[in-house]
Write a structure and sequence with these properties.
- With about 180 residues, this protein is α/β, with parallel strands linked by helices.
- It has one domain: 3-Layer(aba) Sandwich (Rossmann fold).
- Helix content is about 30%, strand content about 25%.
- The strands form 4 sheets. It has a 4-stranded mixed beta sheet with strand order 3-6-7-8. Strands 1-10 form a two-stranded parallel ribbon.
- Strand 6 and strand 7 form a beta hairpin.
- Helix 1 runs parallel beside helix 2.
- About 40% of the residues are buried.
- About 5% of the residues have low confidence.
Amino acid sequence: MVQGTSSSIGKSVIAPALCRILAQNGVKVAPFKAQNMSNNSYVTADGGEMGRAQVVQAQASGIEPHTDMNPVLLKPEADSRSQVVVNGKPIGSFEAQKYWGDQTENWKAVTEDYDRLASKHDVIILEGAGSPAEVNLRDRDIVNMKMAAYAKASVILVGDIDRGGASSARCSAPWNCYSPKNEHS
C-alpha cells in the first residue's frame, strides 16, 4: 500500500509505477483506492464514475478501468459539501459532517470491491489518501490504515521534503499513531 505524509505528495505517481513494473514482469495486478476526492472523474465502459488517478493506474496495469478500483468518489461542490459516488453511481450530495458520520455502508462497498478485485488478481496496489497521521479522521478512516489492515498490506510511506512531513515521518512514522484497538470493522 502506498501512503503519504500529506496530500499531493506523489502517491498517485508511485502507485502506477508499481503497477507498471509488476505488469511488465507478468504479475496480474490491479489498483485500488477505497476513497478518492476529485472533480476529475472518468466514465467507465459500463457507465460508472471513478477517479482518473485509478484510471491511469489501471492503464499502467494493462487492464480496463472498473469502479471496483475506486468504490467511493467524493466530488467537491462547495467548501464542506460533496457529491458522493459509490460503486460508480451518485448517491447524493452531503455536507461533510453528515458524510463523515456513519461509514458502515461505505466500508461495506469498499471491502466487497476490494475482495472482488483480490479474487481476480495476484497483487493489488492500494493507494491511501492524505496522511494516515490525520488524527481527526482516524475514527472514520476507510482508506488508509484501516484498509491496510483489512488487506494485510505492507505500507510504503511517500514523502516530499519540500511539502513537509518527510523529516518528522522518519522519526515518528504515522503507523505508530495507529492502534488495532482503534480499528472499526
